[in-house]
Amino acid sequence: MSNWEKFIRIISIVPVTFFFSLYSLISDKHDIAIASMLTGKIFGSVTDDTSKAFVLMLSNILYLVLFNIFFGNLISEDFRFSSVYLFSRLRNRKVWFYKRAFELLMISSVYALLFLVSNLMICTFCSTSKIELNEVKIFLVLFGLITMILAITTIIINLLAIKFGSTTAFIAVYISVIMLIFLSLKHESIPFLGKYYFVRLFNPLSGIVLNLFDNPIAQSIVAFYYFILMVLTFILGGRFVDNVDIALLDCESI
Amino acid sequence: MHSIEIRNLNKEIKGKNILKNINLEISSDKIYGIVGRNGSGKTMLFRVLGGLIRPSSGKVFLDEKEIHVEKHNSAKIGLVIENASLYPAYTGLKNLMLLAKINNHIGEQEVRNAIKRVGLEPEDKRTVRKYSLGMKQRIVIAQAIMEKPDFLFLDEPTNALDTEGVELVRNIIREEAKRGALVFIASHNKEDIDMLCDGTFKMAEGKLYKGAEA
Known about the structure:
The complex is a heterodimer of chains A (254) and B (214).
Chain A: H1 3-11, H2 13-19, H3 22-26, H4 34-43, H5 50-60, H6 62-71, H7 77-80, H8 83-87, H9 93-126, H10 133-164, H11 166-185, H12 197-201, H13 206-209, H14 216-243
Chain B: E1 3-13, E2 16-27, E3 31-35, H1 42-49, E4 57-62, E5 65-66, E6 77-80, H2 92-103, H3 108-117, H4 133-145, E7 151-155, H5 163-179, E8 182-187, H6 190-196, E9 199-204, E10 207-210
Parallel strand pairs in B: 3-8, 3-9, 6-7, 7-8
Antiparallel strand pairs in B: 1-2, 1-4, 4-5, 9-10
Helix pairs in contact in B: 2-3, 3-4
């Protein structure tokens, strides 16, 4: 993927975000704090109807779906073409993977920043309030969470794509994402575990499904949990790439 | 002088033994060849030698350094694997430049020289997708020789080439051996092996035998 292609894919989130907020932009201004409006846009509206909340949530993770589609082959592409000639030159496959995964993390952070800045601009336009310290705090927490979930899911898709191909990897990850969102929303109905609120936080999708800004402890646990998941993804990904039989994966040499 | 040592090498994939107890010790700047039918395990052996595949058991040493265990200078291996592709959407020059940047041992001039050496034009704006089979074969040979490697592992190097191309590649192989590289060729074309090689091996059903007639 050339740098130009990466750039186009990253900035595409800006027009997409504005397009899906057209209605808000042409409506009257509201007397709601920008922070509440921003979290409302990211986590969706509160509703007691689970099926409605589920559909709303799926539309709210469009930014994640787009990023996964755009960059789900950033690393796995190198296993598809030229892998024989690339990997016979590498001194250390793990280091190569860490560099590529770090590049993906950097791309995730720019994409998350553009997504959040676009949403913040829309919220500022639609609200009569002004940006204060609370908005900055919420913006930074959201930036960290979204960057990490983008990087984690996309690295997992890339790793699965190395072994099973892009389509299978994408389908497998999205079946898991949909199931985890559903479990996060229906947590209270799960027998036994449903009684324990904190168990819900260990569902990897809870951080982007639940608005936890009223509960700073839960928010900190989720942020730390995401960080651990990301480090694990890097370490296990490095091990996988180091041990995989390269030439057997080249699409034209099987 | 460079050396290859293989001790009790086995490779099993999905319960099938592809390489069976291979032992080999060669050390010189000569050209060695392996003949064998399609599916006999020649390419798999080169994949192991190129560090692409881990043996199920056994050890492989290049210049006395065990591959996958000790950090050897991988820029010193030139590899051609039958049918393995370059990026189809890039030109030959761009493909080779990307590979040259991995270890940064050579610059653009050396890459251009390698492309000219195999009879192609570095300025060619066509992407590899639009290359003929013969041109694709020439460009992968250029990527194998461009960094002046100590070891050249060439799997079916004259595949898809016309008579002139075959002669050109044979001359390149001789020049590389003269430069000091240890060249190992796998081919089902016995003529290539007879004309080029100082020592020959035969591969059959995953086993390696000394001598082409074995």
